[in-house]
Amino acid sequence: MTSATLIPRLRTDLAAAHFSVPGLTGLWGIEADAALHRNQRVPARRALAALAVKLGRNEPAATLARLFLLGDPVSRTELDAALPALGAAGALELGLVADDDSGMRPLVDLRPYSFIDAHGADSWWIVSDLGELALGHALGETHVLGIGGASLTLSGLMMPREVERVLDIGTGCGIQAMHASRHAEHVVATDISVRALELAALNAKLNEIDNIEFRFGSLFEPVAGERFDHIISNPPFVITPRAEGVPSYEYRDGGMVGDALVEAVVRGAVDHLTPGGVAQLLGNWEYYGDTDAFERLEHWLTPAAGESLLDAWIIEREVQSPGEYAETWIRDGGTRPGPDFDRLYDAWLNDFDARGVRRVGFGYLLLRLPHAKLAAPVLRRLERMPDALGHNPAGLGAHLAECLAAHDWQVHADDARLLRTQLTVASDVTEERHYWPGQQDPTLMTLHQGSGFGRSVPLDTALAGLVGACDGDLAVGAIIGALAQLLGADERALIAELLPKVRDLVVDGFLSLPEPA
Predict the structure, then answer these.
(1) In angstroms, rounded to a whole number, what is the distance separating the alpha carbons of residues 45 and 349?
(2) In b/e form, how buried is each residue of 350-386, taking b as 16+ CB within 10 angstroms?
(3) Cα dihedral 446→450→454→458 (10° resolution)
C-alpha cells in the first residue's frame, strides 16, 4: 500500500478522533496543558490515566496523545482502535511507529496545531522528530524540529500578501511553507536535510496542501537564477563553535562561522527578489568590541559597489551575553547540566573569546527590493524593541504590511498633500494622562498602541490636540490652523513642528490614512 493511500486514511482517523488542540486540552485540562509547554508530562499522564479509569476505556485521542505527544508506547490493539482506517500496520508502513517488546513505540512527534491568520482560523496536524521529552536524552544532529517559539514568531510576522511565488529557505518540518501556501500560488521550500524534506512533504499531503514544491540544497543554491515575490526563512542561524565534539544540529546550525549564514541570506536576497518583493527572516548578529552590531548590519546591506540596493527594517528583540547565549543553545539541544554541559560551555566561550565577540543580538529582518530597477531604497529602519516580538506575534504580518504601505505613502506625499489629508486615530490606540493632585492640566501624556508592536509615544499639548481631532472629518492642515489659534502659536512654526511627528504616527500605525476611493 502506498503513502498516497495511507495518508488520507491517517487524516480521516485523526479527524474522527477529534485529535485537535481544544480536544486534547479537554482531555487533560488547562494545568496539564501548561505543564506540557514547560516540558513536563506527568500531569498529562495522570489526567489521561484518571480519564481511562472513569470511562472504563481509552479514548482514541488519548491513545494518540500518549503515543505521539508523551512518547509512551501503546498496545497494538489500542492503536488499531485509535486509527481504525489506517491501523497499526499502516502506521508502521508510514514510519510513524515501531513494534518492539514495549509495544507500539513512537518514531515521530505528531500533534495538532491551531492558528489564526489573515485568512481566518484553521488547524493542521504536524509531524516532526521526537523531542527531548519523549526521547529522554539529547537530540540527534539530524533532528527535524517541530513548531517552536521561533516558528510561531516568524509565521505571525509573515506578511499575508497575495503573491505568485514564495521561497522558504530552510523549511524544516514545512510549517512556514504551509503558512505561505495560504497567500501564494506556488511555494518552493528548500532544506539541506533529506529527512526534513520528507517530513515537510508528509505534512503538506496530510493537510491537503498541494502548491508546495520541495527542493534539496543550501540557501539559494536550489533556486539559482530564480526570483520570488516573497522570501521567508527561519534559517539555521545559531552561532555554534566549529570545534571537535560540539554537536552541529541541522535544524539550527548552518555550518558557517559566527553570523556569516545570516549575512549570506541578506546579501543573497537582492538577486532573488522580484521588484517590490519582500524577504522576512529571523537571525542572530554579533557585537565585536565597541562596535555596534547595527553598523555590521548596514555593511551587509551595502554591496561591494557601495550603493545599497534594498529597503530594510530590522528589529533587535534581545541581546545576550556570551554566557547566556551558550546556556540557551546548549540546553536547546537537550544537554543537561553536568560534565558534557560544562565542556560545551567552555567550547562556546572559547569561540567567542577567540573572535572578540562580546554580545549576540537576536531579532527580525524585513528586506525589500524597490519597485523600479534603478530606484534608490527609501526605507532604512534599524531599531531596538526588547521583547517586542515575544508577547503575541500573531497578526503582526498584517501590521507590517500596513506600516510599509503607510511608509511608502508618506515618502511620496509632500507637506502640502499631508496637510490636505484627513486622518483617523487607529481603533487600538489609547491615550494615558497623569495629573498632579489638584491640577487641571496633565503633567504627562502618552499615546499607547494596543496591537502591532505595542508602541508608546509621549505627547505634548499640540500633538495631543492634533491626534484627538483626527476623526476623518478635518484635514491635518485645518486641525493645525485651529490649534495655532487656540494656543496662540505661529501656524507655520506649528506645522514645521508637528508634521514630522504626524508622519511617524502614520508609519507606526497610530494614525490611519483614508481608504482609497
Answers:
(1) 39
(2) ebbeeeebebbbbbbbbbbbbeeeeeebebeebeebe
(3) -10
Let me know if 85 is exposed, middle or buried by CB neighbors in 10 A (0-12, 13-18, 19+): middle
AA identity, residue 431: E
Find the farthest-apart pair of alpha carbons in the chain and give their distance in angstroms, rounded. 88
pTM here is 0.92
- Using the Cα atoms of residue 211, residue 214, residue 219 and residue 221 in order, give the sign of their dihedral: negative
pLDDT digits (tens, 9 = 90+) for 66-80: 999 999 999 999 999
Round to whole Å and give the CA distance between 152 and 439.
47
Q: Which CATH architecture has domain 115-409?
A: 3-Layer(aba) Sandwich (3.40)
| Domain assignments of the chain as residue spans, ordered by start | 3-106, 115-409, 413-512
The helix/strand/coil state of 149 is helix
Residue in 109, 60, 57, 55 with CA at minimum distance from that of residue 82 = 60
CB of 280 within 8 A of CB of 262? no
For 271, phi then psi, to 5°, come to -85, 0
- Round to whole Å and give the CA distance between 32 and 147: 19
Residue 4: is it exposed, middle or buried by C-beta count within 10 angstroms (0-12/13-18/19+)?
exposed
Helix, strand, or coil (residue 430): strand
Place of cell 481504525: 84
Going by C-beta distance under 8 Å and a sequence separation of 6 or more, which residues neighbour residue 183?
A: 118, 119, 160, 161, 162, 163, 166
Cβ neighbours, 10 Å, residue 409: 16
188-198 per-position pLDDT tens digit? 999 999 999 99
Q: Could you tell me the fold of the domain covering 413-512?
A: Outer Surface Protein A; domain 3 (3.90.930)
